[in-house]
User: What shape does this take?
Amino acid sequence: MKINSNSSKFQEDLWQYLQLYNNIIIDGLITDNQLYYISSESDNLDLANDVLHYIETAYSQDYIIIAYDSDKSEKNRFQLLTGTEMVKANFNSKQLAELVDIFKFEGLKENDKEESSSDVDELKQTLQNFDKKSEENFEESLEIKHDNSGPSLDISKIIYASNNITGKLPFLFVFTSTSRMAMNSGTISTISEQMTYSAILNLCREDIGDNRAIILVNKANDLPAWLGSETINLDIKTLSIGKPNIEQRKLLVKYFLTLTDKNGQFISSGNYLDYYRQNDVETFTSDVATITSEFTNGKISFLFDFMSIFADTLFDKTTKEPLPLDKVLFLFENGANAQNPWDSNDVYDKVKQIEDEINATLAGQEYVAKNIRKNLGTAVTGSRRISNKNAPRAVFFLAGPTGVGKTEATKVIAKTIFGSEDKMKRFDMSEYAQEHTDQRLFGAPPGYVGYDAGGELTNYVAQNPFSLLLFDEIEKAHPKIFDKFLQILSDGRLTDGQGRTVSFENCVIVMTSNAGISVDKFQNNVGGTIVESIDPDLATAYEKANVDYHLADISNLIKLETDKAPITSKTNPNIVLKDPKDFYSHFIKYVNCNLEYHFEKKLNRKEIYGRLVDSIIVYNYISQDAMEVIVKNQIEKTNKHYLSTYNLTIDPSKQDELKKFLIDKANNSTTRSLGGRGIIKLIDTFYADAISDTILQLDLKKNGQPVVLSWEEISDNYTKQNKLTFKLK
Assistant: This one.
């Protein structure tokens, strides 16, 4: 093997390690096409199919190369890769004694550690049989037995005896399927395979000779510690193969653009590639290398195959100009006829209408609807992605009280952009409060339970690249999970436990939170009086933002709606709330202060808040007008249900009076602080449940004769409050 200035780093590292270490682990992209060598004469590249191919071609003159593949049948697991003739040998007693001494441990059963004369006799017979066989019958001559009854070491005995003792070419073993064999990471499948590894690595000891072993593995920690750890096994070195960097990708793009067959015709050809060959090759090369940042060499090769096969279709049908590379890449990743909803002609009109759709769905959240429309506008025009094209298309952090419609607005976004509410995937982050639960989302690392299954989040996005991801109650997630979210928000990509990179660039990410609504208060005993206070850092933030957290309580909103009189802060006379609009403006500042404090002080994830601050949209409490709409709608739904099921009607002449009674019941801090859910629960308790009791008392049947019920308000001695009761009219 020759190394010169044109050799790749991988070539240089492997050559160096082969001089120093007897055992080498090569992990990572071991089956990827590899760009190894640049010819100084023609500036052509040497591309090998994979690492095994490179080792076979590069070191065939230095070693007898034998591959071990446990996926193959027992007689074919060892394969002689080089054409060097096997050396036959006659052995004297000293050589046999040395050979038996080296392998006596592996050659004996687990319960028998002493050398026996039968081992020597067996070894002599094996060597005599080997002398009678030719290289053509190499695999058969090994007579390897791979079962769980005991170890089989004929291969190591034969190779040692036939070469190392006689001083011929050393051997280079290449284990090609170790990750598969170690199905449970950190173990090797069978006893016999364990012993085979042990014996061959024993053969590659420094004090025996110049034999080498190379272990190809997807991840180094697929191997047991005794084999793969550089700390435990001092005679081993790991060489990792990652994805190509941008300079390597440029070389590879240039390679495919200039590669020709024996007739001088371009291998990767077609109108699309020919167009760039005739125009600006350098720009094209740089652009392809940039957009393929997460590609392997093999995937870049497939991309050029795609550009060749579908060359005539990669032009705009109207302008006849070649499609931009990002659109070509989209078609390559998702199919030649795939449709990108972000590029559809009607997506702009849909975004324009989404404000009205949200307002029709959510009462009293006009500010929310407006800001969702603005955020989606930047997503479809791409203004937020100019500096980072890999970032998610849109990110929303919906904060505010419970039950105000955060999930409902999310459904509208999914339907608007992706055509269906089914394109929304919800993750309840209260299920990911423990540290280890990050493995459920992103996949377990090798060796852990669930490794083969991947992560719920990464699996979903890999299969559904155009979707809305809802992370509900994000503040309940374990802080460790936020590190992954930072990567998603920054890079738009995430590598799962299996090493697969998943792109979030076409997703909409929505996080919801109730974290900014309440604030932790501390109680101090001051001179016998219990005084409530808040963290000094948070108090400072309130002061800077001109916020009084006492005024942010919903009770003050109800006062402003009911009394129509201004409310002045008791601690800061400069803060005056004149109407419900003032309350909402004050409430937005209050929530933002709390969120910043929560991420920075409680979660210790200030950088996450920095990424999300422009995406925060604060919901208001349910207003009185919105509350009345919800009450009326729920009464109508209840009436419709009992009419269609029991042919039952509530006295129409008293409907307005009934609505007023229930609106008054709902107009309190306790109910309205729970949002729409609290209001609906109140209607169910005071109205629907009372009708249900009457149906049971009267023994009404489904689809019976028409029945009209009248109602009245009575005092309940048990609850000490008024309630509704019904009877036949």
